[in-house]
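Quick question: who can interpret this fold?

. . .
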Amino acid sequence: MIFKRVGDSRPYPEHGTELRDWSELPPRQIRLDELVTTKRTLDLETLLADDSTFYGDLFAHVVEWQGELYLEDGLHRALRAALQQRPVIHARVLVLSKPDA
């Protein structure tokens, strides 16, 4: 098993975090088997492209919500790591707290 679970949506609330906001979060290592994906499908061309990270962040984006780690952006990076038999990726983690009830 590569991921903890394969999801097809974002169960957490909209956070409105822009790319520059993500860049302020320090990257850290995350185990692939702790991640829940938010996309069920992947464009194979994106996975195999040599410049797939050229125009974006070098690190995956993960949202921590209610004790789960959701892979919001970087599915192709995570799959590349798995294909290279690496159990971790470097990701920026945005921690969302529950709204006050």
